[in-house]
Amino acid sequence: MREIRVSEVADAVRDLCIEACYDLPPDVVAALQAARDKEESPLGREIIEELLENAAIARRDRVPICQDTGVVIVFVELGQDVRLTGGSLEEAINDGVRRGYKDGYLRTSVVDDPIFRRINTRDNTPAFVYVRLVPGDALRLWVVPKGTGSENMGGMKLLTPAHGARGIRDFVVEVVDRAGSNPCPPVVVGVGVGGMMEQAALLAKKALLRPVGRPHPQAEVAALEAEILEAVNGLGIGPQGLGGRTTALAVHLETAPTHIGALPVAVTLQCHAARHAERSL
């Protein structure tokens, strides 16, 4: 049994919050560079070049890539042979978020009551924490700051099995088309299929953690991802909604077993600043 102090988790989350908001991951930069080189619209190429310049300035000057530093989603893979000591895991994660947003001069965006008071908690807590127990003696963290411009443009639909792959494709394209310029394209499209409705939504979020453009390991799913991406980019929305062939950098689809009569589909959109950072303890 390996012991990990929760204070180590708090320190890691603090650092990951700042890293994710300052440093666009290499896979996202590479995807933007490839999109710039392939974009047919001169204005589209210029916009992508400006997005790359913005990311370079943020990395160099240690400032946020975007003013909306979002809410913090934390995925945790906890090894079953790990014993956490020194306090609560969730409290430690929130302590890390609190310190990261203060030390990194990041905008706080969480309100305590979603309906009536809507008062800012002033430290961007609580984070949204998802823990999965896995074999081994390690703890792995993914921190995803998620802005609302893209988050508000997602969608969920409870299809039936008769809709099949075509129904999934059509719904994803409908969501992206309806979103237009609002999620600050080029976007990464996360799609979750299967489970029940809440699991489909979580799968869509987790799909955003995959390196941008890496196809699903299952050939049929990868082919569907490619088909959806082609259809999405055929919409002509383009970078920042000003036209072009690059509406999305990638479509990532994840699946889970479901009921014989069900086909739930969730779509989450991530803006061009596809922020995430990870660490293993």
Written overview of the protein:
This protein is of the alpha/beta class and 281 residues long. It folds into two domains: 2-20 and 65-146, Dihydrodipicolinate Reductase, domain 2, CATH 3.30.360; 149-274, 2-Layer Sandwich (60s Ribosomal Protein L30, Chain: A), CATH 3.30.1330. Helices cover 40% and strands 23% of the residues. The chain is globular and about 55 Å long.
Oligomer: single chain
**In CATH, what is the class of the largest domain?**
Alpha Beta
Molecular shape = globular
Largest sheet: 4 strands, mixed
- Terminal CA distance reads 14 Å
Strand content: 15-25%
Nearest-integer average pLDDT: 97
Poorly predicted runs are none
- Treating each run of at least 4 consecutive H or I residues as one helix, how many helices? 8
Structural class: alpha/beta
In the CATH hierarchy, the third-tier topology of the largest domain is known as: 60s Ribosomal Protein L30, Chain: A
CATH architectural category of the largest domain: 2-Layer Sandwich
The strand count comes to 10
What's the helix-strand series? EHHHEEHEEHEHEHHEEE
How many separate domains make up the residues? 2
